[in-house]
């Protein structure tokens, strides 16, 4: 048995029966990382020694009678999530040598549950992107075809979960960053409701839409990890008290799924359209009813997102000043580096100029412009008003149906380097995923078949704090179709 | 919406970014493109629509304004990330001329 290929549910059941140990499971994942990550490049840091210590502790806790679905389960975390004592780079040169001084709340919770941190995964710098090509440390490769991108920004986590380098992985989702790479890599990507889990210890990008999310091999596993991460945190005032459990057993006969017609338009690849049509037939066999619905402001989702996100980015990345932490242009006593940088302003501009990559600079510039005197009303304020309309119409449509079904991305994985030179084209990749982010709604991407051998994702969007319906619908579909069982060969 | 080189330079200054000539040129074109695309937002009728401030219905969340102590190891770890230090202080260039 290849232990690294197990799901959380399978692994925890074997751990509970004492048939395997966390040490065995952790070693299997570390071995797999060593075997395949030279080709995939999903990991930025592997904490082998620390992982084995944590696995040993988990085995001891279990021996003392403790139970728990995550006790002894090895995972990888996206490198924009702080893990105490471990490097956290956000895939940026400006944080290349930054050691996190504390744990993010979600990491603390997973530690308490006994999960074992294997290492940190690659992303687009500061999560700015949809392909993981914007990493300062080079792109991650899609395990299904190494010449293709894994999607982004949680591309390292999605690729690692798909290639069984871990039992599950953590990502973050600001405008599609867990769902979109999940679609490209053939795994389950969950973006919970805004406010469901704490953002404390996530390196902030767009504070009004950032959420911690998961990349897992099954829908049931996403529910397990979310249950462990969810809850109010005094360090994040936007967390909301909302009831658990998140996973509801039972069929889906009699449920109604909405099909927003604006998400089924020209520009989507035929293979993706066919996969969604096939899924609709499969759902009908499970007793689901479909209803055509309309979200007329969908075409404004990307323009709104690309005002609000750069605006918040320009503000959030203001903290990188070359003084408190991170890359600094300040003169170093031990070397000639930084000579001639004598005033405060040059430390700011030179540290930031050298430390940030192209996309981060582009977003900082765009946001600075949108928020600057004379343009604030025309761009930022107008975008926040249109956002209200987007949110209201999504909420209203969701009153009529149990959830929405859409493609996650307009096509399967594209080639690395194919569209990185055209920022606007990359922004348009978010067309199906950014709406749920602006409205703060939960959404999940689940494997929905293949297009010429490459995975295609289906997106389900739910009512606020109703992840349970998404899990129920997704789980029933997954069990009926078995797409998740098709493993990548590498 | 075409941004001039002076405008791009002004934005870079506001953003505290030292950009090369090549970067100024590149961002000029790219930002102009993106802004032209975003301009379609102006056609949406938003009369009487409140801007979004939050999405979950929370009101103000207040807490007592009190200092919470970090443990010594955490303080040391946080200070260890600073590029220039003197004792337990982070060194900053002169702010007031």
Task: Please provide a written account of the structure.
The complex is a heterodimer of chains A (490) and B (97). Chain A is α/β, with parallel strands linked by helices. Chain A has a domain at 3-254 and 403-485: Alpha-Beta Complex (Amidase signature (AS) enzymes), CATH 3.90.1300.10. Helices cover 38% and strands 13% of the residues of chain A. Chain A is built from 15 helices and eleven strands. An eleven-stranded mixed β-sheet of chain A has the order 1-3-2-4-6-5-10-11-9-7-8, sandwiched between helices. Chain A is globular, with a radius of gyration of 22 Å. Chain B has 97 residues and is mainly α. Chain B has a domain at 5-43: Histone, subunit A (Orthogonal Bundle), CATH 1.10.20. Chain B contains three helices and two strands; from the N terminus they run H-H-H-E-E. Chain B has helices at residues 5-14, 21-38, 72-80, and strands spanning 85-86, 89-90. The longest helix of chain B has 18 residues, at 21-38. The interface between A and B is large, with 72 and 50 residues.
| Strand segment count of chain B | 2
Number of strands of chain A: 11
> Span from first to last CA of chain A?
17 Å
Strand order across the largest sheet of chain A: 1-3-2-4-6-5-10-11-9-7-8
Please compute the radius of gyration of chain B using only Cα atoms: 23 Å
Oligomer: heterodimer
Which structural class matches the secondary elements of chain A? Answer: alpha/beta
Order of helices and strands of chain B: HHHEE
Percent helix among the residues of chain A?
25-40%
Number of helices of chain B: 3
Q: For the record, what is the CATH homologous superfamily label of the domain at 3-254 and 403-485 in chain A?
A: Amidase signature (AS) domain
Order of helices and strands of chain A: HHEHEHEHEHEEHEHEHHHHEHHEEH
Mean pLDDT of chain A: 96
In CATH terms, what is the architecture of the domain at 5-43 in chain B? Orthogonal Bundle
Shape label of chain B: flat
Rg of chain A, Å, rounded: 22 Å
CATH class label of the domain at 5-43 in chain B: Mainly Alpha
Which chains make the largest contact? Answer: A-B, 72 and 50 residues
Give helix % range of chain B: 25-40%
Q: Would you tell me the overall average pLDDT of chain B? A: 91
In CATH, the topology of the domain at 5-43 in chain B is named: Histone, subunit A
């Amino acid at each position: 048995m290849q232990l690294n290929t197990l799901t959380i549910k399978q692994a925890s059941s074997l751990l509970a029966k004492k048939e395997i140990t966390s040490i065995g499971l952790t070693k299997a994942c570390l071995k797999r990382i060593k075997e395949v990550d030279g080709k995939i490049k999903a990991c930025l840091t592997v904490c082998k020694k620390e992982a084995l210590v944590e696995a040993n502790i988990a085995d001891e806790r279990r021996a003392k009678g403790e139970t728990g679905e995550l006790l002894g389960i090895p995972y990888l975390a996206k490198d924009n999530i702080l893990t105490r004592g471990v490097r956290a780079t956000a895939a940026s040169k400006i944080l290349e040598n930054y050691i996190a001084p504390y744990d993010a709340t979600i990491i603390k919770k997973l530690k308490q549950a006994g999960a074992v941190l294997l290492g940190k995964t690659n992303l687009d710098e500061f999560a700015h992107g949809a392909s993981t090509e914007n990493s300062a440390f080079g792109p991650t490769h899609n395990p299904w075809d190494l010449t293709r991108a894994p999607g982004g920004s949680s591309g390292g986590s999605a690729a690692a979960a798909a290639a069984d380098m871990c039992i599950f992985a953590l990502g973050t989702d600001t405008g599609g960053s867990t769902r979109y790479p999940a679609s490209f890599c053939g795994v389950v990507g969950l973006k919970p409701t805004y406010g469901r889990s704490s953002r404390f210890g996530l390196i902030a990008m767009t504070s009004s839409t950032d959420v911690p999310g998961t990349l897992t091999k099954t829908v049931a596993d996403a529910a397990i990890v979310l249950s462990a991460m969810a809850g109010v945190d005094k360090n994040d005032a936007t967390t909301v008290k909302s009831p658990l459990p998140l996973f509801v057993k039972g069929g889906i006969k009699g449920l109604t799924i909405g099909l927003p017609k604006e998400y089924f338009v020209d520009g989507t690849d035929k293979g993706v359209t066919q996969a969604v049509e096939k899924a609709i037939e499969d759902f009908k066999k499970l007793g689901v009813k479909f209803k055509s619905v309309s979200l007329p402001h969908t075409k404004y989702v990307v323009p709104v997102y690309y005002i609000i996100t750069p605006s918040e980015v320009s503000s959030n990345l203001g903290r990188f000043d070359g003084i408190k932490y991170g890359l600094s242009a300040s003169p170093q006593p031990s070397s000639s580096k930084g000579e001639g940088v004598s005033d405060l302003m040059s430390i700011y501009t030179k540290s930031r100029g050298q430390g940030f990559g192209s996309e981060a600079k582009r977003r900082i510039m765009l946001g600075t412009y949108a928020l600057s005197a004379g343009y604030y009303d025309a761009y930022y304020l107008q975008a926040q008003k249109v956002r209200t309309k987007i949110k209201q119409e999504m909420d209203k449509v969701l009153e009529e149906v149990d959830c929405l079904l859409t493609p996650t991305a307009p096509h399967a994985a594209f080639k690395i380097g194919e569209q990185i030179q055209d920022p606007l084209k990359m922004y348009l990749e978010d067309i199906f995923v950014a709406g749920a982010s602006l409205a703060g709604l939960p959404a999940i991407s689940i494997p929905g078949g293949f297009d010429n051998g490459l995975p295609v994702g289906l997106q389900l969007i739910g009512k606020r704090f109703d992840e349970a319906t998404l899990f129920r619908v997704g789980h029933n579909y997954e069990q009926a179709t078995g797409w998740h069982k098709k493993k990548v060969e590498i | 919406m075409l941004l001039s080189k002076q405008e791009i330079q002004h934005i870079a200054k506001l953003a505290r970014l030292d950009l090369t000539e090549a970067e100024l040129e590149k961002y000029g074109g790219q930002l102009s493109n993106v802004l032209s695309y975003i301009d379609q937002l102006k056609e949406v009728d938003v009369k009487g629509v409140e801007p979004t401030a939050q999405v979950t219905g929370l009101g103000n969340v207040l807490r007592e304004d009190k200092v919470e102590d970090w443990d010594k190891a955490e303080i040391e770890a946080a200070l260890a990330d600073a590029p220039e230090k003197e004792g337990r202080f982070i060194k900053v260039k002169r702010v007031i001329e």
